[in-house]
Write a structure and sequence with these properties.
Chain B: InterPro entries: ARM-type_fold, Histone-fold, TAF6, TAF6_C, TAF6_C_sf, TAF_TATA-bd_Histone-like_dom. Chain B: This is TATA box binding protein associated factor (TAF) histone-like fold domain-containing protein. The complex is a heterodimer of chains A (654) and B (551). With 654 residues, chain A is an alpha+beta fold. Chain A is built from 19 helices and 31 strands. Chain A is 39% helix and 27% strand. Chain A has a 4-stranded antiparallel beta sheet. A 4-stranded antiparallel beta sheet of chain A has the order 10-11-12-13, with no helix packed on it. Chain A has a 4-stranded antiparallel beta sheet with strand order 14-15-16-17, with no helix packed on it. Chain A is elongated. By secondary structure, chain B is mainly alpha-helical. In chain B, 34% of the residues are buried. Strand 5 of chain A pairs antiparallel with strand 3 of chain B, so a sheet runs across the interface.
C-alpha cells in the first residue's frame, strides 16, 4: 500500500520534472530506514550506551576550556537517561556497571540524586520512584551558547553514536543563545535540572515583592520618636507618613517624651540609638509596607519592655562580636530532637523523641553559672523522695501530650505560649504559664517537621512531610492557607519580619517564598545541593540565609532572587541560622560542634553593587568560629539586646 | 548484581518457613529487596536529620517504616549509640553483640539504676567574641604566642629602626607544668615504681611535650651533676633521656648539645655511684647505647657530632692517667658506635694498651682486688670490641678466607676461656650475636680501606696525632697497603705468624680480586693480631663455618 503511494509520488515528481525534490525525498527515505534499523540494533546492544557515553564524556572533557563547562552540563542528563534506558531494557548488570563507572563525575554536584537513583534495579522501580518518573517524563532544558551547540551537534554527527543522539534528542531541549558562553559561576541552574523548570522559577521570580518592614512597628516608632526629638527628619521616614498615620504619629510623640526623659538619665544609650539610626539611614532605610494580615496589638507593658531592650541593644559589627551564652542539655540519651529559646533567654524548651516537651525556666534555676548545682542536688535527692514530691522537685515543667517524637518547638514572641510539632501529625499549643496543653491542631497528614510562631504572635506556620506548608492562627483548628508546590518534604519554615511572607526549605533542594495572603509562591530559590535544613531572614527583610545538609550556607536577595555565591560554611549539617538584630552578623550552628559568625554587611554591599550583573559575587566573610567541646549546636537566637543564645545536647560520642 | 545476594533471600525464606523457593523467585526478589532497603534507609535518614542527629538509630528506621505505613520492627531499642564489634578475621565487617538473654536472669536481676534526668546547664561560649578559658569550652592550644610582645614590636618599629630582641615569654600551660613536676618527682623519688614505667611510656609516646624539652634537658644536666654518686637516680635520668629520644613528636635536635655532656658524664665519669656496691658498669653500658643511638639518628644532621664524641672518648681511652673505669666507659662508647670505629680507633692502640693493662690484671702485680677486677672488666670490654669487629669483618667477606692462614692452634676446638669469668664471656658473645647486621652496615664505612669517611676523618687523625710514636707502624701499614693497592705485608710489628706466605701466592691475582683479598687479609691480620693479644678468647667471635676455613 505504502509502496504504491511512494511509487505514485515518484512518478508524479518525475513527470513534473521536480528532480531535486525527488533526490531529497530519496535521501530522506534512506536515512529514515537506516535510523530505524540502527536504533533497533542499539536497543539490543547495551554496550553501545557504555561506549557512546564514554566517548562523549572524554570528548566533552577534552573540549576547549571556555566551552567545556557548558558541554559538561550535557553529560549529567545523558548519563542518567543512559542508565535508565539500560534499566528499562532489562540490562541490569550492564546498568550497574555503567552507573558505577561514571558516577564519580557527577558526585560533587548531584550526590543525593545519585544515591536515590542507584537503587533502581528493575523497570518497575522506574515507574515507582518519583524522581525517576520525573526524569522520564520531563525534558531537561539546557542553555548552550551557539558555538557549543554547534560543536555538540557536529560531534554527534561525526561519530555516528546513535545511542547518544537518541538520548539527547529524546530527553534534552537545548536553548541556544548567541554570543559568548556564560561564565562558570552562573551555574546555579545546573544544580536542579529536573522537576522545577527554570522557566517557572524565572517567571515566579518576576513577581513583585514587598520586602519592606511593617509600618508602624515598635522599632519604627522608636526611631521616629528619636528623630523628632532631635528635630532632624530623615527623608525615608517622611515618605512613610501618610494620612492615616498621623494619629499614630501623635502616639509616637507620646513615646518620644518618655524616651526623652529616659535619655537624660543615661546619655550613652541615646548616643548608641543615634548611631544606630544614622547607620541605618546610611544603608538605605527599608521601605514600609502594610500588613496583609490583621495583626494583634502588643499590650503597652510589652511594648515598654521592647523599647527598653532596644535602648539597651549592643551594636554588633565585624569589630564588635556578640557574647554567646550556651545552654547545654545533659543526659538526653540521644533523645533531644529540637530546642528553642525565648527572646529574653529565660525559657528554654526541648522536644524529645519520647514525645515529651520540657521547659526549663532559667530564671528559677538561679544564676546561669550556678545552674548545675541545684540540679545536681535535685538529682541526688530524687531517689529518696516519692513520685509526687518528685514532680514538684523537677527542675523543668514536663509537657506530655504528643504520641510521637517531637520535631520542633517554638515560643510565641513573649514566651507565654509554646508550639510543638510532632510525628503524630499534630501541632500542639501549650501555655507556659499553666503548663498545660491548650489546643491540638490537626490538618497535616504526615509528620510535621517544623512549626514557627510569627514575629507578632497569633499566627504560625508549619512544614510537613506531606509536602505542604500551612498557615494557622492560634484560635482556629483549621489551617488558614495551604501552601503546596514543593516536590518533596517541606523541612523548615520561617517568617518574614513583616509577616506577609513565609519561606520554606525543602528536601527538593529549593527554598520557596510564599505570600500568606494569596498562598501563592512568590519566589523560588534554586541553588542548594541537598536538603535545606535552616532558614533565617535579615531583620530589614531584604536578605535570607539558608543552610543545608552538606554544611553550605547561601545568602539570597529576596527581591531579585539572586544569591551570593554559596560557601561550605560547616563540615556537617547546618541546623540553625540567626541574624543579629541590625542584620550585620549572621550566626550559624552546626552538627560539627561549631558556632560561626559571618560578616553580612560586606557581602551585602557586594550584592548591591552586583545588581548590575558583574563579575563573581563575593563570599560571606567568616569572622569567628567558636567550637564547643562536644555539643552539636541545635538552636541559635539573638535576643533583642543582641546577646546570642545557643543550645545543644552534649553528645557523649563513643 | 544487586548488593543483596540471592542466597540471602533463600536464607530469609527458609527462616520464615518457605523451603521450596524457586531460584527464579529469589533472583527476582533480590533487586527489589535492595530497592526497598534503600528507600527505607533514605526515609530513615530524613527522620534522623529532623531529630538533629548525625547517627542513624533504630528509632529512625522505625519512624521511616511508620511513614510508609509499615509495621515497625520491634525489639530494637537504642537509647545510646549501638556498640558494634569488629568480626574477627574481617577488616570491615561489624556486628552487634546481641546475646540471647535468659528470661529468668532478667527477672532475677536487680532493677537497673534509673538514668540521670535531663538537665540544662549554661556557660559562656564567648564573651564579646572571645572564648573564655573555662572547663566547659574546648582547651586552647598549649602554646599561645604572647600578643603583647607582638604589639610592642610594632610600636618599636615606628619609632626607631633598632632591632631589639625582646625576651620571649614562654607560656607553659598549667597541665604541662604539673606534668613536669610529677615526672621530676618520680625520677628523684620513686623510680622503681610501676608508675615510673608509665611515665617513661608517656614521655616516649605523647605528643605535645615539646614545650617541656628545654626544661627536661636542663633538669637532666642539673640532676646528673648533682647525683653522680646516686646510681638509681642516674639510671632513671638516662631512661628519661632514652624515652625523650624515642618520642617521635619531639624535635630534640636543638637540645642535644645540652644533653650530650650529661650522658657522656654517665659514660666516662671516674666514679659513678658507690664504686663497690653499685653496678656502675651497667649504667656505662646503657649510656654507651644511648650515645650510639643518638649518633645514628642525628649524625646526618650534626655531621661533627660523632667526631666530637669519638674525640672525647679516645682521649679518655688513651690517657693512662685516667682511671680504669673511665677507660672502660670510653671503650664501651666507642664499640657501641660500631665495628669500624673500633677497628680504626681501638685496634691500632690495642697492643700498647694491653701492655698497660697486663700488669693490672695479674694477681701478683696488682694487689688491690678492686683494681684487678676493674682491669678484667676493661679487658673484657676490649675483647668484646675487638671480637665484634672481627666478627663483622668475617661476616662481610665469608667466602674469601684464604686457606693458608694457618694459625698456631690445631687441637683446641673447645672454645672456652680459661682466664675470664664465665658469665662475662657469655654476655659478650650473646651481645655480638644479637647485634643487628644493619647497624653494622650503617656505621661501617664503605671504604674499609684507606678512604676514611668524613665523619671519622678528624677523629682518626687526631688519635694518630696524639700518639704518633706508638702506633705509627700499624697505621702506616694500613694506609700503605690500601693506597698503593699492594698487599705487601711489611708490618711485622704485631703479626708475625701469617700473611707473608699468602702474599707470595697472590701477586698475580687480578686487580679486581685484589681488593677483596686485601679485605680478606685484613681479616686474617686482624684475627692473628687479636689472637696474639687475647689468646683463644677471640675464637668465640668466629662462626664455626668460618673457623673451619682458618683451621
Amino acid at each position: 500500500m505504502e509502496e504504491e503511494v511512494e511509487k505514485a509520488v515518484f512518478a508524479y515528481l518525475r513527470k513534473k520534472g521536480f528532480r531535486l525534490t525527488e533526490i531529497a525525498l530519496q535521501e530522506e527515505q534512506s536515512r529514515l530506514s537506516s535510523d530505524a534499523s540502527s536504533l533497533s540494533r542499539s536497543e539490543s546492544d547495551a554496550a553501545k550506551y557504555y561506549d557512546g557515553y564514554g566517548k562523549l564524556r572524554s570528548w566533552a572533557y577534552n573540549s576547549l576550556d571556555s566551552y567545556r563547562h557548558e558541554l559538561l552540563r550535557v553529560l549529567y542528563p545523558v548519563f542518567i537517561h543512559c542508565f535508565m534506558d539500560l534499566v528499562a531494557q532489562g540490562h541490569m548488570q550492564e546498568a550497574r556497571t555503567f552507573f558505577q563507572t561514571f558516577r564519580e563525575d557527577h558526585e560533587m554536584m548531584h550526590l543525593r540524586d545519585l544515591q536515590k537513583l542507584e537503587g533502581i534495579l528493575s523497570p518497575s522501580h522506574l515507574e515507582e520512584m518519583e524522581l525517576a518518573r520525573l526524569w522520564r517524563q520531563n525534558k531537561v532544558k539546557i542553555r548552550l551558547c551557539q558555538y557549543s551547540y554547534e560543536l555538540l551537534v557536529q560531534y554527534l554527527h561525526k561519530t555516528q553514536s546513535l545511542a547518544m543522539l537518541g538520548v539527547i534528542n529524546e530527553h534534552i531541549n537545548f536553548e541556544v543563545y548567541p554570543g559568548q558562553p556564560a561564565s562558570i559561576s552562573d551555574d546555579s541552574e545546573a544544580v536542579s535540572l529536573i522537576g522545577t523548570s527554570q522557566d517557572l522559577a524565572r517567571e515566579i521570580n518576576q513577581k513583585e515583592l514587598h520586602w519592606g518592614l511593617l509600618e508602624d512597628s515598635v522599632e519604627e516608632r522608636m526611631e521616629k520618636a528619636l528623630s523628632e526629638s532631635d528635630k532632624t527628619e530623615v527623608d525615608g521616614n517622611k515618605e512613610a507618613d501618610t494620612e492615616d498615620n498621623k494619629v499614630k504619629k501623635a502616639d509616637g510623640n507620646k513615646h518620644s517624651t518618655a524616651v526623652n526623659s529616659k535619655k537624660k538619665k543615661d546619655k550613652v544609650v541615646g548616643a548608641t540609638g543615634k548611631t544606630m539610626r544614622s547607620e541605618s539611614s546610611m544603608v538605605s532605610v527599608p521601605p514600609r509596607v502594610k500588613s496583609e494580615l490583621t495583626l494583634p496589638q502588643f499590650p503597652p507593658e510589652v511594648e515598654q519592655s521592647i523599647l527598653e531592650d532596644l535602648r539597651n541593644r549592643v551594636q554588633l559589627s565585624s569589630l564588635a562580636l556578640p557574647s554567646v551564652s550556651f545552654y547545654t542539655f545533659l543526659n538526653t540519651h540521644n533523645g533531644l530532637n529540637c530546642s528553642t529559646i525565648s527572646h529574653d533567654g529565660s525559657l528554654v524548651a526541648g522536644g524529645f523523641s519520647d514525645s515529651s516537651v520540657k521547659i526549663w525556666d532559667m530564671a528559677k534555676i538561679g544564676q546561669p553559672g550556678r545552674a548545675s548545682n541545684p540540679q545536681g542536688e535535685n538529682g541526688s535527692m530524687q531517689g529518696m523522695h516519692s513520685l509526687a514530691s518528685d514532680e514538684a522537685k523537677r527542675p523543668y515543667s514536663l509537657l506530655q501530650g504528643h504520641s510521637g517524637p517531637v520535631y520542633s518547638v517554638s515560643f510565641s514572641p513573649f514566651a507565654d505560649f509554646l508550639l510543638s510539632s510532632s510525628s503524630d501529625n499534630t501541632i500542639r499549643l501549650w501555655s507556659t504559664r499553666l503548663n498545660a496543653n491548650l489546643v491540638s491542631y490537626k490538618g497535616h497528614n504526615f509528620p510535621v517537621w517544623d512549626a514557627q510562631f510569627s514575629p507578632m504572635g497569633h499566627y504560625f506556620a508549619t512544614a510537613s512531610h506531606d509536602r505542604t506548608a500551612r498557615l494557622w492562627s492560634v484560635e482556629r483548628i483549621q489551617p488558614l492557607r495551604v501552601m503546596a508546590g514543593h516536590l518533596s518534604d517541606v523541612d523548615c519554615v520561617q517568617w518574614h519580619p513583616n509577616c506577609n511572607y513565609i519561606v520554606t526549605g525543602s528536601s527538593d533542594k529549593t527554598v520557596r517564598l510564599w505570600d500568606v495572603q494569596t498562598g501563592n509562591c512568590a519566589r523560588l530559590f534554586i541553588g542548594h545541593r541537598s536538603m535545606v535544613l535552616s532558614l533565617a531572614i535579615s531583620p530589614d527583610g531584604r536578605f535570607m540565609a539558608s543552610g543545608d545538609e552538606d554544611g553550605t550556607i547561601m545568602l539570597w536577595d529576596l527581591s531579585t532572587g539572586r544569591s551570593v555565591s554559596p560557601i561550605i560554611g560547616h563540615s556537617s549539617c547546618v541546623w540553625t541560622l540567626a541574624f543579629s538584630c541590625e542584620g550585620t552578623l549572621l550566626a550559624s550552628g552546626s552538627a560539627d560542634c561549631m558556632v560561626k559568625l559571618w560578616d553580612i554587611t560586606s557581602s551585602m554591599k557586594a550584592l548591591k553593587t552586583d545588581d548590575s550583573k558583574s563579575g563573581p559575587a563575593s563570599r560571606l566573610r567568616l569572622l569567628k568560629a567558636l567550637p564547643t567541646k562536644s555539643t552539636p549546636v541545635n538552636t541559635l537566637r539573638f535576643s533583642r539586646r543582641n546577646l546570642l543564645f545557643a543550645a545543644g545536647a552534649l553528645s557523649t560520642g563513643s | 548484581m544487586s548488593i543483596v545476594p540471592k542466597e540471602t533471600i533463600e536464607v530469609i525464606a527458609q527462616s520464615i518457613g518457605i523451603s521450596n523457593l524457586s531460584p527464579d523467585v529469589s533472583l527476582a526478589l533480590a533487586p527489589d529487596v535492595e530497592y526497598r532497603l534503600r528507600e527505607i534507609t533514605q526515609e530513615a535518614i530524613k527522620c534522623m536529620r529532623h531529630s538533629k542527629r548525625t547517627v542513624l538509630t533504630a528509632d529512625d528506621v522505625d519512624s521511616a517504616l511508620n511513614l510508609r505505613n509499615i509495621e515497625p520492627i520491634y525489639g530494637f531499642a537504642s537509647g545510646d549509640p549501638l556498640k558494634f564489634k569488629r568480626a574477627i578475621g574481617h577488616k570491615d565487617l561489624f556486628y552487634l553483640d546481641d546475646r540471647e538473654v535468659d528470661f529468668k536472669e532478667v527477672i532475677d536481676a536487680p532493677l537497673p539504676k534509673a538514668p540521670l534526668d535531663t538537665a540544662v546547664v549554661t556557660h559562656w561560649l564567648a564573651i564579646e567574641g572571645v572564648q573564655p578559658a573555662i572547663p566547659e569550652n574546648p582547651p586552647i592550644e598549649a602554646i599561645v604566642a604572647p600578643p603583647d610582645g607582638k604589639k610592642m614590636d610594632h610600636g618599636k618599629d615606628d619609632s626607631l629602626p633598632i632591632d631589639l630582641k625582646l625576651p620571649i615569654k614562654h607560656v607553659l600551660s598549667r597541665e604541662l607544668q604539673m606534668y613536669f613536676d610529677k615526672i621530676g618527682e618520680l625520677i628523684l623519688g620513686r623510680a622503681d615504681t610501676p608508675l615510673f614505667k608509665d611515665a617513661l611510656l608517656s614521655l616516649a609516646k605523647d605528643s605535645g611535650l615539646h614545650p617541656l624539652v628545654p626544661y627536661f634537658s636542663y633538669f637532666i644536666a642539673d640532676e646528673v651533676s648533682r647525683n653522680l654518686n646516686n646510681l638509681p637516680i642516674l639510671f632513671a635520668l638516662m631512661r628519661v633521656v632514652k624515652s625523650l629520644l624515642s618520642n617521635p613528636h619531639i624535635h630534640i635536635e636543638p637540645y642535644l648539645h645540652q644533653m650530650m655532656p650529661s650522658i657522656i658524664t654517665c659514660l666516662v665519669a671516674k666514679r659513678v655511684g658507690h664504686q663497690i656496691s653499685d653496678n656502675h658498669w651497667a649504667i656505662r653500658d646503657f649510656a654507651a647505647k644511648i650515645v650510639a643511638s643518638i649518633c645514628r639518628r642525628y649524625g646526618h644532621v650534626y655531621h661533627n657530632l660523632q667526631s666530637r664524641l669519638t674525640k672525647t672518648l679516645i682521649h679518655a681511652f688513651l690517657d693512662p692517667s685516667k682511671a680504669l673505669t673511665q677507660h672502660y666507659g670510653a671503650i664501651q662508647g666507642l664499640s657501641a658506635l660500631g665495628p669500624s670505629v673500633v677497628r680504626l680507633l681501638i685496634l691500632p692502640n690495642l697492643e700498647t694498651y694491653m701492655q698497660l693493662l697486663d700488669p693490672e690484671m695479674q694477681l701478683n702485680k696488682q694487689k688491690n682486688e678492686l683494681k684487678r677486677k676493674e682491669a678484667w672488666r676493661v679487658y673484657g670490654s676490649l675483647l668484646l670490641a675487638g671480637g665484634s669487629c672481627l666478627y663483622d669483618r668475617l661476616r662481610l667477606f665469608p667466602g674469601l678466607l684464604s686457606p693458608p692462614d694457618i694459625l698456631p692452634w690445631k687441637t683446641n676446638k673447645k672454645i672456652a676461656l680459661t682466664n675470664l669469668p664465665n658469665n662475662k664471656r657469655k654476655a659478650s658473645s650473646r651481645l655480638t650475636a644479637h647485634q643487628p647486621p644493619t647497624k653494622k652496615l650503617a656505621v661501617d664505612p664503605t671504604g674499609t680501606n684507606s678512604q676514611f669517611p668524613s665523619t671519622d676523618g678528624p677523629a682518626t687523625s687526631s688519635s694518630s696525632g696524639s700518639n704518633p710514636n706508638h702506633h705509627h707502624s700499624h697505621n702506616s701499614s694500613n694506609n700503605n697497603s690500601s693506597s698503593t693497592g699492594n698487599i705487601t705485608n711489611t708490618n711485622a710489628g704485631i703479626n708475625n705468624v701469617s700473611g707473608s706466605g699468602a702474599h707470595g701466592q697472590r701477586v698475580a691475582v687480578s686487580n679486581v680480586l685484589r681488593q677483596a683479598w686485601k679485605e680478606d687479609l685484613d681479616a686474617g691480620h686482624l684475627l692473628s693480631s687479636l689472637h696474639g693479644l687475647f689468646g683463644e678468647g677471640i675464637f668465640s667471635f668466629i662462626q664455626p663455618a668460618e673457623m673451619h676455613c682458618f683451621i
